[in-house]
Amino acid sequence: MSISRSNLLKWALVIILPACCFLIPLSDIYTPQVRWFFVITVCGLTMAAFEVVRLGVIGALMPAFWYLLNVAPLPVIMSPYTTSVMYMSIGAFVFAAAAEQSGLLKRISFWILAKVNGNYWALLYGIFFTGAILTLLTFGMMSHIIMAALCLGMCKALKILDTKFSAVIAMAVMLGTCASHCFVYNASAYAVIGSLAGGLINMRELGINALTVTLHNWPMMIVCMFTLWVIGKWYYENRTLESKSYFETQLKEMGPIKKNEKAVGVVMALMLLFLFTQSWHKMDCNLIFMLLPWALFLPGIDSADADTIKAVNWEMLLFFAACMSIGMIAGNMGLGQVIVQFVTPILAANGGSLSIIVGTVFGVIFGLNFLLTPTAIWALITQPLLQIAQALGISALPMVYALVHCSEAIIFPYEYVPYLLVF
After folding, report:
1. pLDDT average, residue stretch 277-285
2. pTM of this prediction?
3. CA separation (Å) from 275 to 98, 104, 357?
C-alpha cells in the first residue's frame, strides 16, 4: 500500500523534530534525562498533532518510554492517576455521554432554536447562545459535537450545505461551543490547570467558579459576538429561511420528555447548583463530577448503561493523562525553575507590567498552538508562568485566565480538536 506525500512529510517531521532534540549538546541543565524527556515528548505530541497514530496509543506509550529510559520515577510519571482531576474528567465524560444519549441536550437545543423566526441574524446568534448554554450544561465536554450534528442536519434539510450560509453557521457553532470557553465556566479546563499548578494556586481561594468566570470575562462574549457579526456580514446571503419549522418538526418528532431525560436533567441541575454555589460551600468542585454521574446507573434510575461506558472517549482520557504527566515530570526535573530564572529578570527589567507578561504569554501559547494541544501547553507552562507571577508579586488570577483564553487563539482548525470536528 502506497503512502501519500502528505503522510510522508508528517512522518518525516515526527522523526526529525525529536532527532533535533537528541542532537542538542548535553550540559548541566540539558542532562541525559532531560534530553530523553524532550525526545519522547516531542515525538508523542508531534504524532498527535499530525494524527498519524491514535491518541490512545500515544497516551499509553509516552509514560512507558519515560519509565523505560529513566526520565523520572514511576510515581511521578503516573501521578495524574492519583489526582482528583483524572476521576473528575472520567465522571464528566460519562455524564456527557449519558446526557447525549438521553436526548435531553437535543431537546433543549431544538426548543431554543425553534424560537428563531426565520431571521438570518436571529438564527446565527441563536446558534451562538445555544452553544454557549450547552457548553455550560455539559461542562465543556460535548457541546461542539451536539451543535455540529444539529446544524449539519439543519443545513442538509434546508439545502444550504456547501454554501456561504453554511460556513457562517459553522462559525457560529465554533464561537458558541469552543470560543465560549473564554467566558463560560469550563470545569475540565480549570480543574486541569489547578492540578498542573503543583500547589502554587488554589482555585477556591482564587474565587474561580461558574459565576465569577462569566463576571470576570464577559467582554470576551462581546468579542465573539462582534466576530460573528463580521463573518455574518462577509458571507451574507439574501435567502428566505425556514429554520423555525425545521426545529419545531424535530422537537415534535422527539415526543414527550422521557424518564431518562428527566433523570439526566435532575443530575445536571444538581451539578450546576453545586458549581454556582461553590463560593459558599467551599467544597472541591471535582467531587461532584466524581460522584453524581454514576447515580444514573443505579437501579430504578437506569438512565445510563454499558453503551454509555462504550461512548466515553477513553483514548482521549489516556492522552489527557499523558499530557498532564508532561508538567509533572518537567516540575520534578526543575525545568520550571530554569524558565523562571531566565525569564523573570527580563520581565522585571520592563517594570513587571501585567500587560507585557500577558502579551508574552499570548505570543508563546499562540506559537505553541501550531504544534501542541491545549492540555500539553498547560502542562508545559502552567507552573513556570505561576512561579513568574509569584516572583513579580502579581496575582495568579489573570495568569489562569490567560492560559484558558490563549488556547483559543488559533488560525487553523487542526490546532484544537473541537474546532477541527466542527470544521
Report:
1. 73
2. 0.74
3. 20, 20, 30
